[in-house]
Amino acid sequence: MNNLMVRTVLGFAFLMLIMALALLIPAGALAFWQAWLYLVDFGVCTMLITAYLIKYDQTLLAGRVQAGPVAETQKSQQIIQSLASLCFIALFIVPGLDFRYGWSHVSPVLSWIAAGMVALGFFTVFLVFRENSYTRATIEVSAEQKVITTGPYRVVRHPMYAGASVLILFTPIALGSWIALPFAILLILVIVARLLDEERFLLANLPGYNDYRQKVHYRLIPSVW
């Protein structure tokens, strides 16, 4: 197993461990079935996408493994990524507490539907990865990089963030918590801040991006924004 595979496996295992602890410790019980449903949903989707990248695009996989505030080179993105990390953790801690203290109730049917929407968000991210090998976890422009205008990029300029927003928005519902929904919305707002900062960077550093922006008018939501 090469170094990339080791980093990928360890990174995935660490993420799943942190998510499980963030959900189950505040819940105070292993009977938090929505947590197990979500962990399986998240884990299977992540493994399928990772398996695809291992087979077809290890360069992109290497760019995705290097992530987080420390990996960013711009100060603004370091701050944004730090806020995103805090919101991401809250997105799991709060539903655990909600399960323990019974603050809100989501019907099991809605939780299952929301889990399906989480998978749909992952599928959108997969379509982006399949179309664009330059989708790094950090904001940068490679010397050979070009503007991608095909696939989901024909619909919105930031389809990966669109897929991630769907995933995030339905996470609290899949976890059986209405109380955690504001944290999902806050995280999406942080993503919007990252998106706007990224657009400024791409306009300054990626030839052809301004022309692309004139052709595809919507950033995140088709026909809305």
List the helices and strands and how they pair.
Blueprint: H1 3-27, H2 33-56, H3 58-65, H4 75-101, H5 108-131, H6 159-174, H7 181-205, H8 209-215
Helix pairs in contact: 1-2, 1-3, 1-4, 2-3, 2-5, 4-7, 5-6, 6-7
Task: Please tag this protein with its features.
225 residues; mainly alpha; 8 helices; 0% strand; globular
Continuous helix count: 8
The biggest beta sheet reads: none
Regions with little confidence, pLDDT below 50 for 5+ residues: none
**Average pLDDT for all residues:** 90
Instruction: Let me know the number of strands.
Output: 0
- Indicate the radius of gyration in whole angstroms: 18 Å
Helix content: 55-70%
Compute the separation of the termini in Å.
44 Å
> Which word captures the global form?
globular
Helix-strand pattern, N to C? HHHHHHHH
Q: What amount of the residues lies in strands?
A: under 5%
Question: Short description, anyone?
Answer:
The chain is mainly alpha-helical and 225 residues long. 69% of the residues lie in helices and 0% in strands.
What do these coordinates show?
- The protein is mainly alpha-helical.
- The protein is built from eight helices and no strands.
- It has helices spanning 3-27, 33-56, 58-65, 75-101, 108-131, 159-174, 181-205, 209-215.
- The termini are far apart.
- The model has no long low-confidence stretch (mean pLDDT 90).
